[in-house]
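Why does this matter for the project? Reviewers at the last site visit asked to see concrete outputs rather than summary tables. In response, this paragraph embeds two records directly. Each consists of the residue sequence and, immediately after it, the corresponding structure tokens. Nothing has been edited or filtered.
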Amino acid sequence: MEQEFRYTQKKSLLKKVVNKKTGLGIGAVAVTAMAGNAFFFAELPKRDLVYGQQIESAIQLYEDAGFTNIQKIEMPDLEYGQYFESEVVDRVVSEDTIWQEGTVFKSTPITIFYHVAKGDAKEIAISFDKKVQQIERTFKNEGFTDLELEAILLPKNGNEEKTDVVESITIGNYTYNSDYFYSSSLPVFIRYYDVSEDNKVVPKTLQLKQQKKEAEKILKDAGFNNLQFEGVEEKDLSKNGQILSITLDGIDYDFENQTELVLKNNSLVKLRFSDSSSFAKLPTIAPATKSSDVKKQLEEAGFTKIQLEKEETADISRHDTLSSITIDGQVQSDTTETVFKKESKVTIRYYSAEKAIAEEARKKEEARLAEEAKQAAVVSQQASQIQQFAQAPSQSVYYKNCTAARNAGAAPVRIGDPGYAPHLDRDGDGIGCE
């Protein structure tokens, strides 16, 4: 306090002397004031010369400026870096103020906060000629607990020397470097080569719009045994079975940029394809086709819900022939559509002349019965004639046939006439040789 008070007095005296117009006095007092100022005060370093600089360099700046009350405080927050480069200044506090510039007492407390490695940070010595299992064990022994391994699959043929060799190591967001420290709280990601007979190369012969059966054969021949198919409904029958996409172990296969892809032989391979199996094409059916034949053709085409409906007609020649086909309520002749769902409701309308046929049959039956009655009457008459002939007195006249009767001038010969006999009366009407 006494020093500070004396400095204030000297500063005031200097001001008073300067206001006087005696040059000699001014010079003497000015020299004394400047000497006192340099003894008690110092200029704070510029911000750009301190912030972000190494702690030792920053301390040297303050010491060179004359500051004597310097304290440094570690901030153990670095999870990655190099020890000799990591200890950089974060901020400087002087007289409880975060950063200030200008002239202050040399005894002013200067506190410098600087970054240092976390307490769990350490340098890890890794040799890439070691197998992945050994490197994983090294990290675990150093206290790293969050480890993830990713296998780079390679087919065995020609790659045996790469078996379990580490390709890269990433710690947190940083690529591993042997002379850097890392916090053991950071996740460790290790990529290594997995060489095995089970690793299969995805064939580049797979193509978009390839037929499902062909793609299936290509994959099976390549050694893949876990294939799954998913049909996508497609009305266009010409596209049936075409491959739409292939997903390999969750990865969409790029048909355009066919980079080499290696997977385990039991990886799930999902093939999506156009599926027209639920659709059927309406066959071309002639108008005069029988209803049963129409139904058979539709069933063979794949339709499953078919019903028959009669359409009455008096034209017997059209009986049981096709009238029209209705699909889901729409008459087929009214649309150019030929492909429908197999489960569509198909109605076959056909002509039915059953009533006309029955009427015709009735008339024929009546005619038949009438003819039978007529024939029965004739037979009855013949029987009567025969009986009469049998009862007639014996006669000596006999005609062998109608020629003999005509030659004798007896034709026609009636019942009761001499020489009449049933063999001369073929139609049994009682008159022979008509």
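We now turn to the second protein, recorded in exactly the same manner.
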Amino acid sequence: ALLAGGLALTLTACGDGGGADDAKPALKVTTGYVPQPVGHDMAAGFFVVTNKGGADRLTSVTSPLAAEVTLHSTKDGEMREQDSFAVPAHGRL
């Protein structure tokens, strides 16, 4: 709970977005939270990225509380590291 209270995330979304919608991305991050970690060396954080503009990609996340932050997805109960995530035009991630 202590980590969740002090977590501040910085997102870096970059890329040309591609596709027919060439509008600039308009990103907003909400509902960020960090469940209480079970160990001392790893934690997970979650958030929603809403995009009211053109398509983009989430390529990294940083935190002043962590030396390293990696992106992961979970499918069929298995966590997998990801290089980036698509943030669709007028959609959410």
